[in-house]
Specification:
The complex is a heterodimer of chains A (about 130) and B (about 70). Chain A has two domains: about 60 residues; about 70 residues. Chain A is mainly α and about 130 residues long. In chain A, helix 1 packs antiparallel against helix 2 and helix 3 runs antiparallel to helix 4. Chain A is built from four helices and no strands. By secondary structure, chain B is an all-alpha fold. Chain B is about 60% helix and about 0% strand. The radius of gyration of chain B is 12 Å and the shape is globular. The chains are: A mainly alpha (about 130), B mainly alpha (about 70). At the A-B interface, helix 1 and helix 3 of A face helix 2 and helix 3 of B.
Amino acid sequence: MSHRTKYWMLCALAFGASALAGVIIGKTVPAGGASGNAALLFPLLLGVCGLVMAAGWLWWRNTDDLQQQGQLISWYWGGTFGALAMLVYLAVFFGRHSDLSLGATYLFFAQVGGFFIVWLVWRLRGRGQSE
Amino acid sequence: MKNCLRELRKAQGLNQAELADRLEISRQTIIAIEADKYDPSLPMAYRMAAFFDVPVETLFLNPWKATGTGV
């Protein structure tokens, strides 16, 4: 199997896993209000998210320097600016304490938290002996 | 960074897609490097040099060495 074929197959697997996770979440979580058995459902769906990340990781391992750089730059600058712009939009048009604004804020905090965890791991893994 | 990837690739009779497949990288990366738009990582540079069986500095010209300043 050529590298190109393998790359696109893993890419399809990553997107397929994301789509499947979307369907599972959509089928198990009620449209309005909290889930009846949230304590059970939350870790279960976190596991599903973990499988999505694992599929993404398989694809990521098959990408080269340039492709990874493209993803990192786009997610960091594009993703951060997009999230901030939406956060400001929701606050301005729906109020700072509206459900929409609060939900978006939680998502943004989670993103910042995830960033610091991964950054810390990256920093610790890159440590060498100082002389 | 100036390089002679295109010349070495053509000397082997490979097109960009074939070289990309042999090196297990994307064709877009080969195109970007040949156009001097992207500098590969050290491992990738060594991998390319090993493929063509040349020293890295034959493939990627060292701009600091050429000026002799080292900075």
